[in-house]
Predict the structure.
Amino acid sequence: MTDRSIDGPPPEFGIKALTMVVAPASDHAGGLDLQGLTDHLSREIGLPIDLIRCENYGEAIEALASGAAALGWLGPHAYVKAARDGHVEPFAVGMPAGGASPNYQSLFVVRDDSKITTLAEVRNHRIAVGDPHSTSGYIVPRRELADIGIRIESESDFAEIIQASNHDDALRMVVDGAVDLAPVSSVNFDENLRSGIIKPGRLRVIHRSPDIPGAPLVYAAALAPDLKRRIKDTVLRAHEHMEIGGYGGALERYVDPAEARAKLLAAYIRPQWTWRTYLAIGALIGVIWLVAVDLEVDPMALMQSAGSYFADIIGRMMPPDFSDLPALLLAMLETVEIALLGTVLAISLSIPVALCAARNTAPNYAVYLVARVITVFFRAIPEFILAMILVIAIGFGAMPGVLALGFHTMGFLAKFYADAAEDVDFGPIDALNSMGAPRMQVVAFAIVPQIVAPFIGYNLYILDRNIRMATMLGIVGAGGIGYELQAAFRMFEYQRVSAIIILIFATIFVIDMISSRIRARFQ
Amino acid sequence: MSAAAPETQAGHSRWVLRVNDAKKTFEDGTPALKDVSLEVRPGEFVVVLGPSGAGKTTLLRSIIGLERLTAGEVWLDGARVETANLAETRRKVGMIFQGFNLIDNLSALNNVLSGLLDTRGNLATLFYIFKRSDKLSALQCLDQVGLLDKAYQAAGKLSGGQRQRVGVARALIRQPRVLLADEPVASLDPMIAFTVLSLIKEICAKQNIAVICNLHQVDLALRFADRIVGLSDGRVLLDEKPDAINEDYIRRIYAGHGQGMYFGAGGGPADDTIHFDTLAPGPLP
């Protein structure tokens, strides 16, 4: 097919003229200028083309759907609507002069002297909205406002809602003070500034939407395939022969819709990590380095001499001295007993405290606060300190160890239980309440069964940690293997120290195996 | 399109997927597939219909080698699926799951890009960094399922239907020859299930991707399938176009599974019955 056929005979498509309908995105020739292009197209295909500017978007859709019009420009939303019904097909998208993509945005504009600075502040002001089929004047702004809980169609969210007949009209209303703000197309906004209709600095943009794909020129799906091909070919090459125009005034050229879509997609590409991420990582490394310098921690020096340090101490600890095993085992048993009793004490104390420290089981707010303060208080004091005070008060032996562990870990358990109780599923509680079950029975039936598994898990964890901590408590005189360990260190009996460490390790290992078994059974 | 390799099965070009006399018995002796043969053309939408425990999931898992068949063979795109070529087999397959199986804390875009990881196993992707061209194809897939504007939202923040559409996009970015969908709409409400299946059908028809979709909803199967394969107790009971399928067939698929009352045959209260004619293809309300 030749692309130049001005003088050729009119092709026989069985029609004598074509009608092109244009949606009312702009009200002056410069804002939506298709006359030049239609004239060129008319000459090329040898058919007169009647260009009709519609009153509203619906009228333009209807003309194409009914077959009254063969060509059109509808704006993105109306185009999608018409295309979904199968009435129209896109064939060309206009690229703005100097622009890289046919995409545009919906802008919320206010007068420069307006107090409104963010989208959230538009509530209860006067707004001019576009045609309900207008993408940037209605569809996109409606969605963006809905995201922050404002309904564009609701008289109660705005002081006044005025329907503008097009974007230029809406811009004028804002300039003249007829309304406080309007959502408009960036294409019209830029064109009005370029052509001097609106003076620079008169209006301010408070919000810009994500990219909206530039709307295509469409033809009726029912048109003859040859004619469609000819129209598309002519329009895509029109820039070779003339200055072309379209939505937003002068255009660079028309491109295939697939190409325009690719440009829209490209506009959505963002880097995975921004400079902020790299800055944060850099700052973190810097801080860690500074802290290490401040503490005089020198990993290189440690690595260089670590070998000799450890060889020396390990040499002195080998072989372990188990000659006094029965006494060590007895001390170890005492440590485990202290831990066990301490844990039992912690559990029994923590259940009532936890019930008072969970919002959904506490009798009232005052009790809740007191219970929370108790849990924080005992967690805040290390058991080491508690044990030292208790040793002074009641003297050496297992008793201060049991009490120190019991009260300190009560603080932990009460917090764990209370949090677990607050996280329970409220459905069963509602069900029992609806049937009038007494308060404590609701706890027993609807809450306790739900927290049994974490309850067991926490208790085993606390027992495990209490055994480890109980070995340490011996050092301050609270009984058990810790006392033996301390004594061995004091006497420089490093082989006995290693024997005790191995014993502690073996004990904790066995306890860990047992608690895994128990835990598995309850989960 | 597949290039015909000389050593492949005769006439393979008509079939993108072929299952021959597949049998699968689990190690504990449970038979899952007793005798299944199946052929799928490029671009065809095949629904595997059957009650729970019929072997639908085992069949799909066997196709991509997640289960090893006890006997029988699977041919995909002209090559026999074997342990040695599992990687190539999986490269040609996209999978959609009942529970979506998205990574909730990653963006929709990165979820889609995860569909490319088998061929992008480099250091950069460990830090979620992909080439521009890969990002463009991921955006294109999201655009196809209508979620371009949600590209940078965390998958976990999307609605169920949107999440499954991300799942579809993740399968599509692999440019698969075959799409396997295991109960893709079982956790979606009926309207959204309809939309998601329409989308899968439309895109796969356009791109000539064969779909094998496990379903248990008879109405959806009748509406979307080019062909329905009825699976019951590890055997193919029927393999027909939807318009050849009547109530009697459906009863046979579900016979003895206590699911017959779905059609009013199980002695349930009269209000529970759904009559077969209401399930026939027709306009959606």
User: Anything to note?
Assistant: Residues 439-473 of chain A form the longest helix (35 residues). Chain A touches chain B through eleven residues (CB under 8 Å). The two ends of chain A are 76 Å apart (CA to CA).
